[in-house]
From TrEMBL:
<dbReference type="Pfam" id="PF00580">
    <property type="entry name" value="UvrD-helicase"/>
</dbReference>
<dbReference type="InterPro" id="IPR027417">
    <property type="entry name" value="P-loop_NTPase"/>
</dbReference>
<dbReference type="InterPro" id="IPR000212">
    <property type="entry name" value="DNA_helicase_UvrD/REP"/>
</dbReference>
<feature type="domain" description="UvrD-like helicase ATP-binding">
    <location>
        <begin position="6"/>
        <end position="291"/>
    </location>
</feature>
<dbReference type="GO" id="GO:0003677">
    <property type="term" value="F:DNA binding"/>
</dbReference>
<keyword id="KW-0238">DNA-binding</keyword>
<dbReference type="Pfam" id="PF13361">
    <property type="entry name" value="UvrD_C"/>
</dbReference>
<dbReference type="Pfam" id="PF21196">
    <property type="entry name" value="PcrA_UvrD_tudor"/>
</dbReference>
<comment type="similarity">
    <text>Belongs to the helicase family. UvrD subfamily.</text>
</comment>
<feature type="domain" description="UvrD-like helicase C-terminal">
    <location>
        <begin position="292"/>
        <end position="572"/>
    </location>
</feature>
<dbReference type="InterPro" id="IPR014016">
    <property type="entry name" value="UvrD-like_ATP-bd"/>
</dbReference>
<dbReference type="GO" id="GO:0005524">
    <property type="term" value="F:ATP binding"/>
</dbReference>
<dbReference type="InterPro" id="IPR013986">
    <property type="entry name" value="DExx_box_DNA_helicase_dom_sf"/>
</dbReference>
<dbReference type="GO" id="GO:0043138">
    <property type="term" value="F:3'-5' DNA helicase activity"/>
</dbReference>
<protein>
    <recommendedName>
        <fullName>DNA 3'-5' helicase</fullName>
        <ecNumber>5.6.2.4</ecNumber>
    </recommendedName>
</protein>
<dbReference type="GO" id="GO:0000725">
    <property type="term" value="P:recombinational repair"/>
</dbReference>
<keyword id="KW-0067">ATP-binding</keyword>
Length: 773
């Protein structure tokens, strides 16, 4: 037997060996679905299937890259390289590029990211003189997105009285007009947004049977991971492509369907059998990822869902540690607890940062975590925040590059026509936009015909516009003979972009200059990579990669970091230690998803996804008070905590609790040192011994009888009370120092301490958390 087949259990192997016909693998988390897909591709190639004939669709491009690496290990790099693998968006963007002219698009069409789309919708709302509080651009975009993902075109919208009625009732009667204008403007700009990549692919495959036939013939074997989260548009593409050979293999877990708000349709998985009556169904039941405590705990929660397919998940792994539940006073303390716990686990088990992930329901929760990690000098990476490519300075430079490839790109043009400042004001740009609408041309086409269009601008402005056009055209000529890096470099040098940032002089300015430099380095790397693999290294391809890049794709340094992300993004991933934070009613489950059973069940699936990311230990935390929307709110523990079978749970309390005297005072306010002081070696050792001794939590009250945090803190204060002049003490951030004076009484007692690194400081004992050493 081939070695890779030996790395599979019996049902996994059966699924890999099943070569032809439709098949579905339905299985719980961590049971090897992704592994089976990967090995199946390798096996198909071993069986003589041409790598060009295999299409594999994954949830992220990073997942695709990792799968490719594995496959290359079996079949070699030169073969693996030909595989079509990636997200729906990246694979079909590539196909659309070669077929664009059929749809009236230039092959070098731009891909608008969400930021571009929102800006365009904002402009349209303004031009239509609509109230932007009633027509919120992001909401409108999400409505348009839902139309597109259900294949409702503008014409279909205007033929559908139900949809129009719904918008009318929501007091937004002009949604259809905005949709129409948005589609037209994108088209004129030679731009597709993310949803267009799917919508236009559907259009392509429906309108042009010869194109459909071509890709059906090419993709003789099709595989889809995370099938439970495909939307209608994706479903139709897959069904069309697989229609001829019917060699379609989808894998998924209905219990992990978490994207219905983006149009994902769990029925795609449930109805697979109806679509393909000959389907072979495989079930994988053994989980290889997690301890049995985690697997059982996750099972006990998901069991509460009514709508789910019948399936078991078990594991042969050890019981491992209990699931740890932790209550904290505030979100600040929650952050500090998590950071402290990560630090201790690292010390106790010799682990690097990349063994840890912090998962939360909403992006806003990352801040408290970040603050705490920074204070402890623990390196982290946030996924799903503002990505590198969306920073202003980067987007500005990219907009120049986009213009060279596609000068009709309206959003790019608007960003750079007056950046760096060249005296072209907002009024002029408005006039250009109006003319463009009037003549049904792009703004750049208007600029090329300034003599024929009466814009009512003075001759000075006209000259400035002409200069701008000449500059772009000069770059375009250069772009014909230069590679992507040389062009980007030329643009940076000739536009004063960096000079403008340097003038700024602030640390942020310096940071921006570095980012621009980083982008140039990135382009250089891109070219080297592509040349090595013999792929297209043009600027157009670079821009496409960038438009479709997720944070997972722009990792540049190899420093191990703690991963922070929303649960939605964590799908398919695994980490030894997982912290799920903010387990409070109204936050998780979200207040917006508690009204119907189906919404609540989706939240529960989300919790199931979160918990099943953990390999060894899962920590679940909740805060009694939390700042939300600028207000301090009281929190109740999430119902999901109750739903976990008690057998698998252990309640722990914070080890270095905050004083309870005033919960509105954040102890960290008293620490004004921005940097963490590194301890000298002997102290570091002592600290480790101390922590090792205390590896078990100090207070472990039984469930339901949590010790009040105030009792615990009283103890800590007693500890501080023992401090006398002459003691050597250790402080979280200031490091070690000698107590040289004491003053005041009770809660006002202060110590003057001479720290070896930061000098003398007076600290309130009740907040200072000093340790005598
Ligand atoms: P998810 O539902 O979270 O996407 P999955 O079903 O795709 O999970 P995988 O990610 O493929 O599961 O596998 C989970 C872990 O178990 C991985 O680390 C994988 O390498 C390991 N694994 C899977 N099958 C086996 C096996 N037969 N022997 C050893 N390890 C395995
Ligand atoms: Mg998977």
């Amino acid at each position: 037997m081939n070695t890779y087949l030996k790395q599979l259990n019996e049902p996994q192997r059966a699924a890999v060996l099943q070569k032809d016909g439709p098949m579905i693998i339905i299985a719980g988390a961590g049971s090897g679905k992704t592994r089976v897909l990967t090995y199946r591709i390798a096996h198909l190639m071993q069986q003589g299937v041409d790598s060009f004939n295999i299409l594999s669709l994954t949830f992220t491009n990073k997942a695709a890259r990792e799968m490719k690496e594995r496959i290359a290990g079996v079949v070699g790099h030169s073969e693996a390289k030909n595989l079509w693998m990636g997200t729906f968006h990246s694979v079909f963007a590539r196909i659309l590029r070669s077929e664009a002219d059929r749809l009236g698009y230039p092959s070098n069409f731009t891909i608008y990211d969400t930021q571009d789309s929102v800006r365009l919708i904002t402009a349209i709302i303004k031009e239509m003189n609509l109230d932007k509080d009633r027509y919120k651009p992001k909401q409108i975009l999400s409505r348009i997105s839902s139309f597109k993902n259900s294949l409702i075109t503008v014409r279909a919208y205007f033929n559908n009285s139900d949809l129009q009625q719904a918008d009318l009732e929501a007091s937004r009667p002009r949604v259809g007009d905005i949709y129409k204008a948005y589609v037209e403007r994108c088209f004129k700009s030679g731009a597709m947004d993310f949803d267009d990549l799917l919508l236009r692919t559907n259009e392509l495959l429906t309108r042009f049977p010869e194109v459909l036939a071509k890709y059906q013939d090419r993709f003789r074997y099709i595989m889809v991971d995370e099938y439970q989260d495909t939307n209608h548009s994706q479903y139709l593409i897959v069904r069309a492509l697989a229609d001829r050979f019917q060699n379609i293999c989808v894998v998924g877990d209905d219990s992990q369907s978490i994207y219905s708000f983006r149009g994902a349709n769990i029925n795609n998985i449930l109805n697979f059998q109806k679509d393909y009556p000959d389907v072979k169904t495989f079930k994988l039941e053994q989980n290889y990822r997690s301890t049995s405590n985690i697997v059982e705990a996750a099972n006990s929660v998901i069991d509460k869902n009514k709508t789910k397919l019948d399936k078991e998940v078990w594991t042969a792994n050890d019981a491992g540690e209990s699931i740890k539940i932790m209550r904290t006073i505030s979100d600040g303390e929650e952050g500090r607890f998590v950071a402290q716990s990560i630090w201790e686990n690292q010390m106790n088990h010799q682990l690097t940062n990349d063994s840890f992930a912090i998962l939360y329901r909403t992006n806003a929760q990352s801040r408290a975590m970040e603050d705490a990690l920074r204070k402890k000098d623990i390196k982290y990476k946030i996924y799903g925040g503002i990505s590198f490519y969306q920073r202003k300075e980067i987007k500005d430079l990219l907009s120049y590059l986009r213009m060279l490839i596609n000068p009709n790109d309206e959003e790019a043009l608007k960003r750079i026509i007056n950046y760096p400042a060249r005296g072209i004001g907002a009024t002029t740009i408005d006039k250009l936009a109006i003319a463009a609408n009037h003549y049904n041309k792009s703004i750049f086409e208007i600029l090329l015909n300034l003599d024929k269009v009466d814009l009512k601008i003075n001759s000075g402005t006209k000259t400035k516009l002409e200069n701008f056009v000449r500059m772009i055209q000069r770059f375009q000529i250069e772009a014909k003979t230069k590679n992507a890096f040389e062009i980007a470099d030329l643009v940076v040098k000739n536009t004063q972009l960096v000079k403008d940032l340097q003038k700024d002089g602030t640390p942020e300015g310096v940071n921006k200059v570095e980012n621009v430099q980083e982008l140039l380095n990135g382009i250089k790397d891109f070219i080297t990579d592509k040349i090595e693999t013999g792929e297209d290294s043009s600027l157009a391809v670079f821009l496409e990669d960038v438009a479709l890049a997720t944070d997972f794709d722009s990792e540049k340094d190899d420093t191990p970091r703690v991963s922070l992300m929303t649960i939605h993004l964590s799908k398919g991933l695994e980490y030894p230690y997982v912290y799920i934070v903010g387990l409070e009613e109204s936050l998780f489950p979200s207040a917006m998803s508690m009204n119907t059973r189906s919404e609540l069940e989706e939240e529960r699936r989300l919790f199931y996804v979160a918990l099943t990311r953990a390999e060894k230990v899962a920590y679940l935390t909740y805060a009694q008070t939390r700042y939300r929307w600028g207000k301090l709110t009281d929190g109740e523990p999430s119902r999901f905590l109750e739903e976990i079978d008690e057998k698998y749970v252990e309640h722990i309390a914070p080890k270095a609790p905050e004083p309870s005297a005033n919960r509105f005072i954040d102890a960290s306010l008293f620490d004004d040192s921005p940097k963490r002081i590194r301890f000298q070696k002997p102290i570091q050792k002592k600290r480790q011994e101390f922590l090792a001794k205390k590896a078990k939590p100090a207070v472990v009250p039984p469930k339901g009888k949590m010790k009040k945090v105030s009792e615990v803190s009283a103890k800590a204060n007693l500890f501080d009370g023992e401090i006398v002049v002459g003691n050597f003490v250790e402080h979280n951030r200031f490091g070690t120092g000698e107590v040289i004076a004491l003053e005041g009484k009770g809660p006002n007692k202060k110590a003057e301490i001479k720290f070896s690194t930061v000098g003398k400081k007076k600290l309130l004992l009740q907040f200072a958390k000093l340790k005598v050493i």
